[in-house]
Amino acid sequence: MQQPTKRDFEELFQSDSVQAIQLPWFKFDRIGTSCAGEVVRLFKVPPRDGRKGSLAVVLKSYATHTIPVKPSKEDPNPSPIFVQQGEEMNVGVPDTQMHQQQLEGLEPGDLLQIKFADEKNTGKGNPAKIYEFRRKKMKKQEVISF
User: Fold this and answer.
1) Chain centroid offset of residue 117 CA
2) 95: which of 8, 53, 63, 125 fits an S-S bond (Cβ 3.0–4.6 Å)?
3) How far apart are the first and last CA of the chain?
4) Is the dihedral of CA 85, 27, 20, 110 positive or negative?
5) Which domains are assigned to the chain?
């Protein structure tokens, strides 16, 4: 395999033929909303703008998901994003000790479902979202691709 050169990397940002990778973020917009798929990778999103960080999973979608898009001044009636079966999407949950434990040991190829199960009044304004995690460890030869 040939080693990439500095020029190869410079061309990534200068060429119109190279497409930027932008995965949509799944939104848990109401109780009962869920998503499921094959784990591609896990990562942490650092805190920013006074908000806490989050845990994120890239999932290869098990089914077609519709992701609502918030209206803006530029686009007051935006179209939703459709993630088709087999396409990848980001899914984020708050970075809490409980969520870390629920995602611990998860590996690429495992199956995961995350459901916005309920809300709990915290007495601090916005209610806390309660997530339910279901996972299935897949043996290397069982890994499925959509």
Assistant:
1) 17
2) 53
3) 28
4) negative
5) 22-142 (2.40.50)
Q: What are phi and psi of 45, to 5 degrees?
A: -100, 120
Query: CB–CB of 80/69 below 8 Å?
Result: yes
User: Residue 13 is encoded by which pair of tokens?
Assistant: 């940002």
Tens of pLDDT along the chain (146 residues) come to 677 777 776 776 666 665 556 788 898 888 999 999 999 999 888 888 877 888 889 999 888 888 888 888 888 888 888 888 888 999 999 888 888 899 998 999 999 999 999 999 988 888 888 999 999 998 765 555 55
- The Cα–Cα gap between 80 and 70 comes to 9
